[in-house]
Design brief:
about 375 residues; alpha/beta; Rossmann fold; 16 helices; globular
Amino acid sequence: MKVAFWTPPPAPSGVGAYAAHLAEALRPHVDVRIVPAPFGERDPAAVAETLAQLNDADLVHIQHDYPFWGGFAPGAGLLSYYRRLKAPRVVTAHNTRRAGDLLRVADEPRRRQRLAKGLLSSLPRYRSRLEREPFAGAAAVIVHTGADLGRLLERRLNRAQLRIIPPGVPPPPEPPSEAALESLRRRFNLGGSRLATMFGFVGRDSGCELALQALARLPPQVKLLIAGGDEEGVIWYLGALRAGIQAQGLQDRAFVYKELEVREIPALMALTDVVLAPFTADADLYSAVVALSHGKPVLAADLPFFGELRALSGALELFPPGDAAALADRLGFLLASGGTRAKLAAQARTYAAQRPWSVVAEETLQLYRQVLSQPE
């Protein structure tokens, strides 16, 4: 079986990391060929080359999130590719948010733009192009949670077309060297500190401001490291975040580390006491799964993905979304309670052993076989 894996590039977390782990686990069973996501590519020769690679496969597996496929424009590039695909396609829906949420209507401070976005997101044709058509017509759609499944059913996708396959957990990493640990300690002056880390792509849904509000309520020895690249290349957001840290007088306790590399993750996790995921909406949720592979307790907003991951693993603590006081209170408790952290860490390791990527690959392979056995 030849599978064209149409995906963004590998990354420390997020869709790229998810896709890289799944592709690696599938390789012993199928011929996986990575085809880079087009990112709005319009050059006819490049489009033709991409289509040639996709149509040479028995099946195309698309890792879908909007930034990789032309964003939210009505004529986003993915749909034009669909019309020229010959192989059946499986789509993993990493983002099932509604049009108004994707356009951030509620967060738009400019009245005229907010009205325009609200009107656009209410148009049935636009909503269909954004919410339904990336998934409609696929032979199968993979979602991570029951909440994702419910959203796609609301859009009249066929239940038989949908499959819940929770993400796998990467294998435990090699322990970091003392030199790698000391390098990070010195860089962020972590000696004698308790460290909370936000790990993964940084964006407006990541809850960074909420984490800073919580940090200000905690003792000075508690520090926060926001580690990872910016969401969708929104470099101005990282600048605004650093300015906010300075304005609140937290520059000695809160750090933004945009240049995080994959090889640095084991050292970062080894120094971390608690991983924070204070998202205000579905965002880089796979970063929490990566944290479990390092045996780290995760304190997350009580959103559907995290609620379901907690039910499966028992390795997460939850707090009410958007509540800085509750976040500070729960983080303070976890940092003070080594026994609770040890219990959560043990549950994380147990879940990691139960949900390796090899299990997810087998579930995905079964779906591939089902798709290819269907009559054309």
